[in-house]
C-alpha cells in the first residue's frame, strides 16, 4: 500500500510590527503526516526552470483534509529543508480516489539556482 512520510511545515504567524511598521512573525514547526514525496519528470524540471527560474527537486502530494497554507513556505523532510514554489494544484477532494488531492513543487532551501548543477 502506498503511504506518505511526515513532513514538517514551517507555519508563519504575524505577531505584530516592528519600528518600521514591517510585520514580525513567529515560526512554528508543524508535523503533517502522510505527505507523498515524488520525483518530478524531466519535463517538470525543464518547465519549472524555464517558467520560474527554479530548480524543481520534488513534488509533494498533500493529504485530503489538510488545511495548512503550502504556498511559498519552508518544509523539512529527509533531514533537509526545502521551499515550496508555484501554485498549489488542487483536485476535487470527493472525485480523487487516493488519499491525496493537492500537490505542490519544492526546491532546495537556501540553494542558489545559478550555482546548481544537474
CATH superfamily: Bacteriophage SPP1 head-tail adaptor protein
Rg calc: 16 Å
Strand content: over 45%
Number of domains: 1
Low-confidence stretches: 112-118
User: In CATH terms, what is the architecture?
Assistant: Beta Barrel
Overall pLDDT score: 88
- The H-and-E topology, N to C, reads as EEHEEEE
Distance between the termini: 32 Å
CATH topology, what is it called? Thrombin, subunit H
As laid out across the biggest beta sheet, the strand order is 1-2-3-6-5-4
Number of strands: 6
Q: What is the CATH domain class?
A: Mainly Beta
| Number of helical elements | 1
- Structural class category: mainly beta
- Principal-axes shape call: globular
Main beta sheet: 6 strands, antiparallel, barrel
Query: What oligomeric state best describes the polypeptide chains here?
Result: single chain
Structure summary:
This protein has a single domain (5-112), classed as Bacteriophage SPP1 head-tail adaptor protein (Thrombin, subunit H, Beta Barrel). It has one helix spanning 42-52; strands spanning 5-17, 23-38, 58-63, 74-77, 80-90, 100-108. By secondary structure, it is mainly beta.
Describe the fold and architecture.
This protein is mainly β and 118 residues long. It has a single domain, classed as Thrombin, subunit H, CATH 2.40.10.270. The protein is built from one helix and six strands; from the N terminus they run ββαββββ. It has one helix spanning 42-52, and strands at residues 5-17, 23-38, 58-63, 74-77, 80-90, 100-108. β4 (74-77) and β5 (80-90) form a beta hairpin. The radius of gyration is 16 Å and the shape is globular. It starts with a strand and ends in a 10-residue tail after the last strand.
